[in-house]
Design goal:
Blueprint (H helix, E strand, L loop, with lengths): L1 H18 L8 H6 L6 H10 L5 H5 L12 H16 L5 H27 L16 H29 L7 H13 L22 H30 L10 H26 L10 H23 L6 H18 L6 H19 L1
């Protein structure tokens, strides 16, 4: 199956390399035109460099019903999803999530929420705020490994990816260039800065770019909120609960709003998009990931708003269950695509510099 997929990707890449009409559309085409022949590693790198903006498909004169039947965004999406499953550690979990993402997300959130509800029986006396429901030490004991283990898994996966796509050394300048491209979502801006064609065929739009930026920067703000709370707790002896004007609350509330809005926007765009231009078999997994990410942010905001009511214990365990599910599922959901895509951008920066 994978061999047939790569062979079809190779056929389409060779036709695109001969045509070159889409040169300059995104980072994929300079990388594609640099090659004379395409190894499996080349195709995997191109697939993870592709942001699935779909502009090349709507510009192409060789799509169906032409006999060449090109669908480069679709075939690269299939190769990309297959590569994530192949490189994931442990293998197998990614395949399950891609096929049944929504159900897996719901089951893990509910299961972990019930687990946290049972943990309440071990709460020590004297806690304040959330710690009156679940002790601080219990949260640390659960979430520290839940945060570190996915990072180890992703590191192993990226090492496999790097080797499969040709290996090579890393440089600071290439890494900075890749982060700069990712920060601006350069490849979703289109070759001429008009945006891409993800949601409305040949109509150019920056909607997908802005939705991704809202999700990315919202997530980073939420992560910064957690880091600032950790520093205040262990570094300065300032313990939760914190007031609204404290760094954890300001960062977390604004990040949660951006993340919730961005995730909802992405769901809306995905529902409007043409499925056959993406990895159709992984549509459920992609949707499950976006819904889980949005629910983590939304449940956090609701918990903040209703934290002083009798609903707080139930909302807390539900939010913690969602956060724990998100962390543990990260290496096997589309959350991993950010790490792969950043790695692909680093490699592309290095290859561009050498040629």
């Amino acid at each position: 199956m994978q061999a047939n997929l790569l062979q079809e990707a190779r056929r389409q890449a060779e036709i695109c390399n001969a045509c070159r009409y889409c040169e300059g559309y995104c980072s994929v085409f300079p990388a594609l035109h640099r090659e004379r022949a395409f190894s499996d590693g080349n195709l995997t790198q191109l697939a993870n460099l592709c942001h699935n903006c779909r502009g090349c498909y709507y510009a192409c004169q060789y799509t169906a019903p032409h006999e060449f039947n090109l669908n480069l965004p679709g075939i690269l999406a299939d190769v990309r999803e297959t590569s994530w499953e192949k490189f994931a550690w442990p293998r197998g979990f990614a395949r399950v999530f891609q096929k049944h993402g929504v159900m897996v997300a719901i089951a893990t959130v509910v299961g972990f929420a019930l687990l946290f509800w049972m943990v309440r029986t071990f709460v020590p006396q004297g806690g304040k705020g959330f710690y009156a429901v679940i002790a601080h030490g219990t949260m640390v004991a659960v979430f520290a490994p839940a945060f570190l283990l996915p990072l180890v898994s992703i590191a192993i996966s990226l090492r496999r990816y790097w080797r499969a796509t040709g290996g090579g050394g890393l440089s600071l300048s290439d890494t900075i260039a890749a982060f700069g491209s990712a920060a601006k979502m350069k490849n979703l801006a289109g070759g001429h800065g008009d945006g891409c064609n993800f949601e409305e065929e040949d109509r150019f739009s920056h909607a997908r770019r802005y939705a991704h930026q809202a999700v990315m920067y919202g997530f980073l703000l939420c992560f910064a909120a957690t880091c600032s709370a950790t520093i205040m707790h262990y570094g300065f002896g300032l313990y939760a609960p914190y007031g609204f004007w404290s760094p954890p609350k300001l960062l977390g509330v604004n990040g949660g709003i951006a993340l919730t809005a961005g995730a909802a926007w992405m769901v809306w765009l995905k529902l409007k998009s043409d499925r056959h231009l993406g990895a159709a078999a992984a549509w459920g997994g992609e949707m499950g990931f976006v819904l889980l990410l949005g629910f983590v942010a939304l449940s956090g905001l609701v918990l903040y708003l209703l934290g002083g009511t009798s609903l707080m214990p139930a909302l807390l365990v539900l939010h913690l269950g969602a956060v724990l599910a998100f962390f543990l599922l990260t290496p096997y959901t589309k959350m991993a695509h950010g790490f792969y895509r950043l790695t692909a951008l680093v490699k592309e920066a290095a290859l561009s510099r050498r040629t």
